[in-house]
C-alpha cells in the first residue's frame, strides 16, 4: 500500500526557527520612521517586547525555540504531511501532490505557530495584556488561545465585514476568554475618525491594525501582536517548512514547486523559506505565492515604502503594496485582504527569487471543492488559493506528461467558513478584479520617501 501520511514524532518538533535573512543575496531594506530615516530597535519598544524586536532585526540563520514554546507546540505539532493520492487520481495527473495540514491546530490554522511564541515572549517581558486585530478571525482566535495559555488578557479588533460574516469565530475568541470589538470601533481615535467619515465603513485590516496599535501604545501594561507580515512572524512559521523537509525525506521525495496562499506572507514564508535555504545552495525548487485577484498585492502592487496601517501609525516598510488606504472588496478569504505584504517576501519577489500568481475567488472555491471531494478535508477559503494554483500546475503536467512533485501548504480548515461555501454552491459568489483606476488612486497616496 502506498503511504498517505508522513508522521513525525514530538521530538522531531524543530529546536530552532530558520531565518531566511541569512540566505538572502541582499540585506533587508531598512524600516523607516516618520522622518524617513531608518529606525532603531528602541522605536518599536512601546508595543513589542525586546526579545521579538531582536528577532525582527536578526540576521542569524538559526534562532532557538524556547522549551516552553516547544512544549506548547506539542498540543498539535508536528503536523502531518499527506500525499494526495486521491486528488492525483481525480485529476488524472502524473504529478505527485503533497500537502502539509496546519488545520490540526486548536484554532484551525497555522497562526497558532506564532501566537504561542508571541504570548510567551510578552509574558516573559512582564506584559499583562495584548491588543491585536483580526481579519477573518483566524489570527484573533489563535491569539486568544495563546494568550489564555500564558495568562495574558487579549483584546481583538475584528474587521467589521468578517465580524458579521463569521460570528462563530467571535464565539471561539470568547470561549478562550478574549474581548472582541467590530472595527472600526468607538474604542479608539482611529476607529471613531473612520466612523465619523463613514458610519457604514466595512473595515479593513489596515484600519483594525491602527486601532490595535493605538490601544497598545496608550497603555503600559499592553503590547501589540501581529499575525503576519513582520519578520519575526515569518520566522516562527518556519516550523512548517522545517518539518516538511524531514517528512519529504521520509517520503524519499523533494518538491519541484511549492504553493501557498499569500496574504501578509506568513504561511508562504513558513512553508517556503526552509526550502529557499536549499535554493540558495543551488537546488532547483520553485516557490509560488498565491493571492486573490481582488487584492493583488504582489502581482499588481508597487514595490515602495508604505505604512502598515490606514492611520499611518506604523513605521514605513519597503514592500509590495496597493496603498495603505486601499479598501479591498469583501471577499471571503478575509485573511488575504491586506494592502501590503511581508518585506522579506516582497524583496525576494522583487529580486525574482520567488514567484506569485493571482486567482479569482470562484476558481479558488472550485479548487477547494475538488480537493474536499477527493481528500475529505474542507479547506479555509485562503487555503483554496494555494490549492487552485497547485491543481492548475497538476493539470499542466497532465498535458505535458511531466511527473513533477508539487507541494502546497494547507494553511487551515474551513469549518467556520461554510457560509462562503454556501454562497459558492448557490452561484452568488462574485469575482472582483480590482479596477485599475481605483488602484492608481490608492497608489497615488503612497508616502514620499527619498531613497
Ligand atoms: C491568515 C491566513 C492566511 C493568510 O495569511 P498569511 O500571513 O499570508 O499566511 C492563509 N490561510 C489561513 C488559513 C489563514 O488563517
Brief summary:
This protein has 18 helices and 15 strands. With 451 residues, the chain is an alpha/beta fold. The longest helix has 20 residues.
What does the model show?
- This protein has 18 helices and 15 strands.
- The protein is globular.
- It has a domain at 5-10 and 66-108 and 233-443: Rossmann fold (3-Layer(aba) Sandwich).
- It has helices spanning 50-56, 67-73, 85-91, 112-124, 138-149, 160-165, 167-175, 189-197, 205-217, 231-237, 239-251, 266-280, 297-300, 343-350, 361-375, 381-400, 418-425, 436-443; strands at 5-6, 16-18, 62-64, 81-83, 96-101, 129-134, 153-159, 179-183, 222-225, 257-261, 286-292, 302-307, 316-321, 355-359, 405-410.
- The protein is 40% helix and 16% strand.
- The mean pLDDT is 95.
- The strands form 4 sheets. The protein has a 7-stranded mixed β-sheet, sandwiched between helices. Strands 8-7-6-9 form a 4-stranded parallel β-sheet, sandwiched between helices. The chain has a two-stranded antiparallel sheet with strand order 2-3.
- It binds pyridoxal-5'-phosphate.
What is the topological layout?
Layout: E1 5-6, E2 16-18, H1 50-56, E3 62-64, H2 67-73, E4 81-83, H3 85-91, E5 96-101, H4 112-124, E6 129-134, H5 138-149, E7 153-159, H6 160-165, H7 167-175, E8 179-183, H8 189-197, H9 205-217, E9 222-225, H10 231-237, H11 239-251, E10 257-261, H12 266-280, E11 286-292, H13 297-300, E12 302-307, E13 316-321, H14 343-350, E14 355-359, H15 361-375, H16 381-400, E15 405-410, H17 418-425, H18 436-443
Parallel strand pairs: 5-15, 6-7, 6-9, 7-8, 10-11, 10-15, 11-14
Antiparallel strand pairs: 1-4, 2-3, 4-5, 12-13
Helix pairs in contact: 1-10, 2-4, 3-15, 4-5, 5-7, 8-9, 10-12, 11-12, 15-16
The structure holds pyridoxal-5'-phosphate.
